[in-house]
Amino acid sequence: MGETSERSTAPHLLFFGAYDPEYPRNLIIRKGWKKLGFALSECRVGIKRKVHTRYPALLYRFLRCEKKDDVIFVPDFRHKDVPLAWALARLSGKRIIFDPLVSRYETKVLDRGDAGKGSAQAWHNRNLDRISFNLPDLILADTAEHAEYYHESFGVGRRRIGVVPVGFDEDTFRAVPQNSEDGTLEILFYGSFLPLHGVDTIIRAASGLSDEPVRFRIVGEGQTHDDMRRMAESYRLEKVEFLPSVRFEDLPLMISEADVVLGIFGTTSKASMVVPNKVYQALAVGRAVVTAGTPAVGEFFREGEHLLTVPQGDPRALADALRALGSDRALRLRLSEAGGSYVRSEFNATRIAERLFNVITELDF
């Protein structure tokens, strides 16, 4: 893409809704869009507002915005804001892009099990997905696997879905040289303990490494946290330490203190469709990564070159992979260098914004 043509043809995006401006997905897109020199503005209210107060507040802010934008962009998790955005887009002659990042039904019912499949809550979330996915002119997905799920489950036309991977924020996650000394293998997992993370697989793998020179740091809180702590205690795992969540800005230091960072290992359908933030972040810092070998991971990464993969939910395979990394420092360095160089080149905020621009241009929505 030539810089002149980019600046003259890229749409002015208006980020719209009750979104978290610090959440990595929309933060990366906004940063990258601005770094390319493209126009962007925001119409946002607090994420805790309920619909009955959120809609009037968003409408008020929209009416006060300068009307230079071409596209209303509804970012991650804002399914409930899509109907209002759609109505305003139609009234003002604009187009609308929705970047859901997840399906509410897939997340709340199939992955987390917050509601049964036949419950009213399941119906509500599935219906909200169907409406919010079919009103916009363009839907974004973070992987081709997710795009196919949106098509098959909610009837979204393939021509209306563009794939833009998650990526990472290069201003936050920078390469840090590894410790040159051999010794205990420091293994890190951080996350919100969702079923898709498969922390039980990590605990079982740790139990198979109890006699090895390894140490696990498991950081975060969430749905399965207490169960995982009890599991670790039942195995009497002295080399597994549970720590509370850290601030986002402290993640790079925490990653840099590890030798290996773990991705996700769950067996839910969602686990096979996503590449989590932590994979991109850890590789960007320059650490070897082990994660489940899912179709989604295979879209962007090559096993044995950028990272190591193991079957979903297989603690023995995970233990074997970690044992190999612990005994072969050259392998760790090769993976971290190749994976880090690749991610920093292809998945930084600027490259993610370029992918978005290409999707908009190619689909000509």
Please characterize this protein's 3D structure.
The protein has 365 residues and is an alpha/beta fold. The protein has two domains: 3-167 and 348-363, Rossmann fold (3-Layer(aba) Sandwich); 185-346, Glycogen Phosphorylase B (Rossmann fold, 3-Layer(aba) Sandwich). The protein has 15 helices and twelve strands. It has helices spanning 3-9, 24-35, 51-64, 82-92, 104-111, 120-134, 144-154, 199-207, 225-234, 251-256, 277-285, 295-300, 315-327, 329-346, 349-363; strands at residues 13-17, 40-44, 71-74, 95-98, 138-141, 161-163, 185-190, 214-219, 240-243, 260-262, 288-292, 308-310. β5 (138-141), α7 (144-154) and β6 form a beta-alpha-beta unit. It is globular, with a radius of gyration of 21 Å. The two termini are 19 Å apart. The relative contact order is 0.13. The model is unreliable at 1-7 (pLDDT under 50).
Short description:
The protein is of the alpha/beta class and 365 residues long. The protein has 15 helices and 12 strands.
CATH topology of the largest domain: Rossmann fold
| Shape category | globular
User: What percentage of amino acids are in beta strands?
Assistant: 5-15%
Bin the helical content. 40-55%
Number of domains: 2
Number of discrete helical segments: 15
Mean pLDDT, as a whole number? Answer: 94
